[in-house]
Design goal:
The complex is a heterodimer.
Chain A: H1 3-16, H2 18-55, E1 58-62, H3 79-91, E2 95-101, H4 103-113, H5 118-123, E3 132-137, H6 143-151, E4 156-161, H7 162-205, H8 207-215, H9 220-261, H10 269-298
Antiparallel strand pairs in A: 1-3, 1-4, 2-3
Helix pairs in contact in A: 1-9, 2-7, 2-9, 2-10, 7-10, 9-10
Chain B: E1 2-9, E2 19-26, E3 31-35, H1 42-49, E4 57-62, E5 65-66, H2 75-80, E6 82-86, H3 97-106, H4 112-125, H5 141-153, E7 159-163, H6 171-186, E8 190-195, H7 198-204, E9 207-212, E10 215-220
Parallel strand pairs in B: 3-8, 3-9, 6-7, 7-8
Antiparallel strand pairs in B: 1-2, 1-4, 4-5, 9-10
Helix pairs in contact in B: 3-4, 3-5, 4-5, 5-6
The chains are: A alpha+beta, B alpha/beta.
């Protein structure tokens, strides 16, 4: 095998089909960047999901004077009502713990949470935020029993299942991730068709050479290798551009999301590099495989 | 060396066979003219030897091997032992004489030192001394065909197939080409040449196999072109 010869042939092939090669590289780059972004989002969402689902509670807000719920009748929940409710909840087999958050605690938490927006804090005084019972479940999906147990008890203002709120958020992120993967799939389809066309052009351009190669008894691998490597090199170039785009999407998309959504876990660079290597490998194999398959149609052996 | 055993070839979507019940045996070192009008099956005959086509019926043997039994991945090795020359030369226009001849060795993975030793020898053999650096479009038709012969012969094949090698060349130059083929034949290489050129066949007095409508109608040693009776 004379590598010099093979690479010379590849270089000639790529140069002859320059515009085709460029469009192939761009398509592969976009496909792999979308694919990688989808994977990064998935990893981020998966790790945040388990972190947050462990922490979420069902919050049962108790009646207060300024509650709009008619069941509360503009009165604070009594001490007795609260203790009865706590006892009922603790008896439920699904519940692992019940914590009481007083109005003072709630106000303190509010202050730290919104420390960036002093206007909010100034407009709120202690007692505006109702006290609540925070119910931790053994299995977070079994929240319905807790809700039905607490729903009609006296002194209960509102029940908020935090998991449901989180699920809405994760649904949006899931949608984003699937949209990226779906677009990537379309791009992959386009890339495969482009590889096919590039190989056809290449085979046509080099029909004299390949004809002579066949006649003088060059092995099939020798004839096919330049075409396959041509595809692989275009795939690699696309993959490398995708790598740059992926670093960009980690910095601009994922990290921004993380800041604004307070993801508990941060995507490490090791994970990002893993995804990048995987994307490049997929890009190279995709193009090489597609050219190998189309070659059998356009190149008679 | 080449043996056709009752070979019939019918191309797909064609009713008339291109070759029917052909029995021809060519010995090692022979020079054979394959003559006959266009469409009589000469090219099919050559393509069967290269295993570019498979016989519909019968067997083709090359160097004692039944080509029907040759697996596809061994076909390149068969073709390395057969050189080919065509009417249209089939040179690579962007390579010079040396590179065109060297190409045949490069693509079968021969080392560079071997190539730089063997290629000039063959270029001298076909009578193109000093023209190694010329591009094909700077050469006459006869010279281009010499390059093609050099490329076909550079790997020292046991068989040289020539399909109308003088078809695009004027008669005077054709004699020169024939002398080159004769020189190659004298090294022990079997030569099978398909041709229309009566003057050449008559002048060289070699074995003549005549095809008509895919049948062998004459097989004559030291024959002439048009004397079928």
């Amino acid at each position: 095998m004379r590598l010099h010869f093979v690479f010379q042939e590849i270089w000639i092939g790529l140069r002859r089909n320059l515009t085709m090669t460029i469009s192939l590289i761009i398509t592969v780059a976009i496909a792999m960047a979308l694919f990688g972004t989808g994977m990064l989002l998935k990893r981020q969402v998966d790790s945040s999901k388990s972190y947050w689902y462990d922490k979420v509670n069902v919050s049962i807000y108790l009646c207060s004077k300024n509650s709009s719920n008619t069941g509360c009748a503009k009165k604070d929940a009594t001490e007795q009502q609260r203790q009865e409710l706590t006892a009922t909840l603790q008896d439920l087999p699904e519940v692992s713990a019940v914590e009481y958050e007083s109005k003072e605690d709630a106000y303190e938490r509010f202050q730290t949470l919104f420390s960036n927006t002093p206007g909010f804090i100034a407009a709120t005084k202690e007692g505006d935020i109702p006290d609540s019972l925070r119910v931790r479940l053994k299995d977070p999906s079994k929240f319905t029993t807790v809700i039905s147990a607490a729903e009609n008890s006296p002194g209960v203002d509102q029940i908020v299942n935090e998991r449901e709120l989180l699920e809405k958020l994760f649904k949006i992120l899931d949608g984003l991730q699937w949209a990226a993967l779906f677009l990537a799939l379309i791009q992959v389809f386009a890339a495969v068709l482009l590889v096919g066309n590039t190989v056809r052009l290449s085979a046509f351009n080099r029909r004299r050479e390949t004809g002579i190669m066949r006649l003088v008894g060059a092995s099939n691998m020798y004839i096919q290798l330049p075409f396959i490597l041509e595809g692989a090199i275009a795939g690699l170039a696309g993959g490398l551009i995708a790598a740059v785009l992926l670093v960009g999407s980690k910095l601009l998309l994922i990290d921004t999301l993380q800041e604004s959504l307070q993801f508990a876990t941060q995507l490490t660079w090791t994970q990002v590099i893993g995804v990048i290597i995987f994307s490049i490998a997929v890009g190279v194999l995709l193009c090489a495989g597609a050219s190998f398959l189309t070659l059998r149609r356009y190149l008679k052996i | 060396m080449i043996n056709f055993d009752n070979v019939t070839k019918v191309y797909p979507n064609q009713n008339r066979p291109s070759l029917q019940h052909c029995n021809v045996a060519v010995e090692k070192g022979e020079f054979v003219f394959l003559v006959g009008p266009s469409g009589s099956g000469k090219s099919t005959f050559l393509r069967l030897i290269l295993k570019e086509e498979r016989p519909t019926q019968g067997h083709v043997y090359v160097a004692g091997k039944d080509l029907n039994k040759l697996t596809n991945w061994k076909v390149p090795h068969l073709r390395r032992r057969i050189g080919c020359v065509f009417q249209d030369f089939r040179l690579l226009p962007n390579k010079n004489v040396f590179e065109n001849v060297a190409f045949a060795l490069e693509v079968i993975g021969k080392p560079r030192r071997f190539i730089s030793k063997v290629v000039p020898e063959v270029i001298d053999l076909v009578g193109l001394e000093g023209k190694q650096q010329r591009m094909p479009d700077e050469l006459s038709g006869g010279e281009q065909q010499r390059v093609a012969i050099a490329r076909a012969f550079v790997n020292r094949p046991m068989i040289l197939l020539a399909d109308e090698p003088t078809g695009n060349i004027d008669p005077a130059t054709s004699i020169g080409i024939m002398k080159v083929l004769d020189r190659i034949n004298r090294t022990g290489t079997t030569v099978v040449m398909a041709t229309h050129d009566a003057a050449i066949v008559d002048a060289f007095r070699k074995r003549v196999v005549e095809l008509e409508d895919g049948r062998v109608v004459r097989d004559q040693s030291r024959g002439v072109y048009g004397q079928a009776y």
